[in-house]
Every structure is written in structure tokens, then in C-alpha cells.
Amino acid sequence: MKLADAFILIIGDDGILLVPPLAKSEPLFIAGCDRERAESLLETMASQPHKPVYILADILAQEYRQEILPQLNWFDRRKLLARRLQQHFAQAFLTTALTFRNHNLLACVHKGGPLQEWVGWLADIPNPFGGISLLPLESACMLARLHPETRNGWALLLSWQRTGGFRQIVTQQGELIFTRLTPSLPINSDPHEIADIITRDLQASLGYLARLGLTDSNQLSIVAVIPEKTHSALQAMSLPVQSVTTVAPHQAAKQLGLAFAPALNDPTSDLLHAGWFMQKKKPRVTLMRSEDRQAHQARQVKYWGRMAATACWLFTLAYIGWQGQDLLRLTMVNHAQTEKMSALQQQLADERKTLTPVTEPLGRLQQAVERKRLFTTPTPTPWDILDDLDTGLGDAARLTKLHWQNDGTESLEISVKLANKENIKPEERQAVIEQFDRIAQHLQQKLSGYSVQITHYPFPSQSEEILSNSREKSSDTPAIADFKLARVIR
Amino acid sequence: MRFLYTHQRWILALAAAILVLLVSNPLLHYLDQVTVQKHKTLETETARLEQNLQQLRADAETARRLGENMDETEAEEYLAVANRMHVAAILTALANTARFSKFTYSLSPEERFRPEGIESGDVARSTLTLQADAPSDEDAYQFIEQLQRQLAGRLQLQQLTITKLHEEPMPPLSAMNIRMTAQLEWLSNGSQRTARR
Fold this sequence. Notes:
The complex is a heterodimer.
Chain A: E1 7-12, E2 15-19, E3 28-31, H1 35-46, E4 53-58, E5 62-67, H2 74-88, E6 92-99, E7 104-110, H3 113-122, E8 129-134, H4 135-139, H5 142-146, E9 154-161, E10 165-172, E11 175-182, H6 191-211, E12 220-225, H7 228-236, E13 243-247, H8 249-256, H9 270-278, H10 290-359, H11 362-375, H12 383-393, E14 397-405, E15 411-418, E16 423-424, H13 429-446, E17 450-456, E18 477-478, E19 480-487
Parallel strand pairs in A: 1-4, 4-8, 9-12, 12-13
Antiparallel strand pairs in A: 1-2, 2-3, 5-7, 6-7, 9-10, 10-11, 14-15, 15-19, 16-18, 17-19
Helix pairs in contact in A: 6-7, 8-9, 12-13
Chain B: H1 2-6, H2 8-69, H3 72-79, H4 84-97, E1 101-107, E2 111-113, E3 123-134, H5 137-150, E4 154-164, E5 178-188
Antiparallel strand pairs in B: 1-3, 2-3, 3-5, 4-5
Helix pairs in contact in B: 4-5
């Protein structure tokens, strides 16, 4: 809940001012505290039931107290502060505590008065109640913005509210240390009279501040947000302070860069404080009744719960979108692929229809071509070597046997008989061997690509054969030798 | 319970979002797998169709080219089935022409096999064994060459033995001078068998 989007109800002892969200319409002021007159404000707020209502209290019945506590952890300090609040403000309507760097500030608003009445009346309208904030606490930091030199040391902000009167806010090192409300004057009072009253009130405050540690009043800087016509009169008063800076409410609002400002002729600073309060992200303190706090907490839980649910939904949708992106892309690709496939199927069907008469005999043709290749492949035959053998032997010898085999080497085994000799006498053996050797040499020359080897002579003559004379006288040996012709593989 | 009742709307919305988030992950994973699988199937099917189309066009081109190189009559000759009875008749006729005596032959049963480089159908292989007495070795050679020409398919000589039967001097022309034994491998399309019931 942003303060800028909320109704701000400035409640003082002299009247109530309702500042609409962003001050889009005129603020409504009612004097005093009367339910009948309050109805118009309540109706205005109820007309926008979702807008929360914050109270900025500028009443007299508020009290502050400084407390210095020993070094404690957060839980113990909370407990001790609660005990101190109960101890000092036992009869208070609402209490709160603020922790500063060097001290703690206890604050309370007392029972009775317009604040308690209005808290009760606000329960009758549907608008969420944002709580009660204390004007001195919320506006204390305005001093440093209006007059940066007051950030260090003692400073006093004086402003005139139509709802409450003259509010003095004193800060030390930028933090609230004292506040005081003095009665208001009629709006059209004489400037000198106003200056006199202000001077008197300020001098009285110096006495209080001396008790709080301001030993030398010349350390105090005063910033007075008062009507322009009063400036010269106040400047003329010789106050024993370091400086007195005067600024008109309208000018102060402009200087602070607020979203809206009091009118030029408006002597009061109610709207200045409201504008300052509304520009904050959240109030500095929020006082609430326990039932209001429960309702507020429930609203907060609901708000953050909705935010969490929304964030979770956004994350879920983003995740699904992120993950689904690839899925969607692939689905679209599949769709395109399906269309392409359908087109291909159609094309294939069309071409099949057209080309079937052409391709139908393909199987038979291919088979016929394969068979032709197989059946017409040349195979080894002995015809060539037989022709060469016939030439090679000539008239010197004749074949009595041949054996050809397609065993990879296409070997040929032949038996050759000498043409001019039937039987061999023992004394002719050497000559016969020489004759067969000559035939072998001749064949070797004629049969290129073949090796010619005599495997057996007509009689034992090889190194592995047995040489004997036992059969020499009994018979003669036919002049037949065995040859082996083998293809030389290169 | 009061807390739940007060905040039921956003709690339900949050729970629904978490539920959707938890369910969406496996669901998306499953859908992704299904889609990827479908994509692969489509790609495979498309590739197959493209291949079929290319094959069809290539077949058409091949058929045209083969048709130019081989006519139907020649194709019929190479694809003709073998007739073993016809082989026997050829053998007898050629043996008579060659004036063989004691002519014997045997043709072994067909053995089906697929030679290297042949893709369409099996080929039949039989072994033909011959033995005969002939007037001269020239008659034997001519017999084998004639047989190779007349038999459909391929007749490959595996073994040939010629033995001279008589010693010198040469006998009369009508005499059987040599004995031939031969073994040949016959490759053919095989005999067509018809089963009848």
C-alpha cells in the first residue's frame, strides 16, 4: 500500500483535514470533532473503498520519552521496550518505540480526544486502515531537507497547522528530541501578533531544551514555515539562537519537491506535512489497536500472498513458455514435415503410376543381364596349350596320354613317346635322357607362361628313384617319359 | 481454519500455480519426447519416401538403358529354364556325330546357389561326367566345344583326360584310337519344377 495512493487524515485538536490520494481534489476540512460533520469525510473515503486511510496525528495528547537501554540483543531489547512502554504509558491509548543510534524513543497517544473517536469511526467504512502516524516523528526529517545545515546539531522546525496549532519539532543530529504544540490563532491574525506569539513560544521552548542538553541556545537553528507576511516581523525579533530561517508553506513544498503544495495565500502547513508524509514509502511509525493490527496483518498477508501467487503464476507461465517454445517449434516443424511427406507420397504415387510400365520389366531385364554376364564369362580351356603343345613336340615325339585339370594353375600332365624309338637299350639311356631334355627345353621355349618339368623318365634316373641293374637283361623299356606343365602365376 | 478461510483465494491460486508448475515439467518432458519421437519417425519416413522416389526414377532410367541394350527375345534366352531331357538328347546327338563308342555320361542333381555378383535369384549347378572312345583326340575336342555352344548356360571344363588306346602303327580310320574322360561344371537357370496336388 503506497502512501501516495492513500487518504491522509490529519487529526488535530482543532479540526480534521482529509487529503485525498495524490491530492487530486480539494482537501476537506472540518473544525472540531463531531460525527455528523465527520460523515462527509467518511462518505468521501468510502466512495473509494480500496484506498487505505492513514491518520497523521497532530494532537496535543501525544507524549515522547527518551530511554537509554543497555546493550541487548534484538529480542531482549523488544521485551524491555515493551516493559518500559507499559511502565511509563500505562494508561495510553496506543504506544510505540523507536530505536535510534544512541537512545530509544518511547511515544504514545493518550486516550480520549478526536483521535480515538476517529479510529472508531473509521472502522465503519470499508477502507483498509493503515494506522496512526505521529506528525512530529514523520516530519522531523523535513528539517534537514529544508535547511541542510541543520543536519548536525540542534534545529527547530516551526509550522502552523489549521488542525492543531503551532507545532515545534526539535531535532538533534537529525533525530526528534522534543516537540511542542501551542494553540492556534485565527487565520487572519496580525503578523506582528503572530510573531509575538511565536517568539514567546520559542523562548519558552528554549527552557525545556536546556533541560534536554541545549546549554547554549546559540547552537539552535530555527526554520519557521509561516505566512510570508510574518517573515519580517519574526526576523525582527531578536531571538538568542544561531539562525532563524523563514519560509512560506507554499515555497517550502516547492523546495521539497512535493507532489502538491498549499495555496500561495494559505498560511497553514497542513498540506505541507501531508505532502511530505505521502511522498514516503512507508510511515516511520504506525500505531494501531490490536484489532486493527490483526486486520492490517491479514491485509498484508493477503497482499503478499496475492503477490506470491501472481509471481508463482508468472514464473510457471514463463517456465511453460520457455519449455514449450522448443516443443512448439518442433510441433511446427513436424507439421511442415507431415505436409512435405504427404506431398512426397502423392508425388511417389503419381510417378509410380506413370513409370510402372517402364520399370515393370526391370527385374527380368536385370536378371537377364546378370545371367548374360555370368554365362558369357570366359572360362579356362586347354585348347590353346594343346595347339602350342602340338607345335612344340613336332615330329620328334608323340603324346600317348594327356590329363588337363582346371585346378587354378590349369596344369597339364602328359606322357610323351619318342617317335623314332620303340624300346631303349641300357647303353642308350644317356642319349634318351638327353633327347627328352631337349624336348623339354623346346617345349619350354614354345609354351610361354608355363613351366615344363619331366616328372619321370622311361627308367629310374632321378635322385629319389632306385637305380638297379636287376631288370636290365629281362626286358627293354619303352621310350615314354612323363611331363608336367604348370601355368606360372605372376 | 479461519486463516485458510480468509485467505483461501490466494492460497488456492498459489497452490494451483505450484501444482501446474510441478505437473508441467514431467508433462512437457513427456510431450517433448513424444514430439521428438514423432519427428524422428517423420524424418525416417520422409527419407524412405525420398529414397523410394529416387529409386523409382533410377529404376526407370536403368530400365530404359537396359531396354536399349537387350531386347525381350535375348532376355528370354538368358532366363530360359534348363531342360535336362533336352541336355540328354544333345549329348546323344553330338556323340553320334562324333562317332563315339562306349559313350557314357552322367549329369549330377542340380545344386542351387548364388554366385558372387548375382543379386536376382539362384543359379543351378550340375556336374557332367563324360567317357567315350573316339577315333581321334580332335573328335573329342570338337565334341566338347559343340556341347559348350549348344547347352544353355555356362559349361566349364574342369578336367580332361585323353589316353591313346593303341600302339603304333596307326589302326584303320574307323578304329577307336583314344579314350576320353571329361568332367564339366554346368551353370544354368535350373529346371522348372511344378508341384501338383
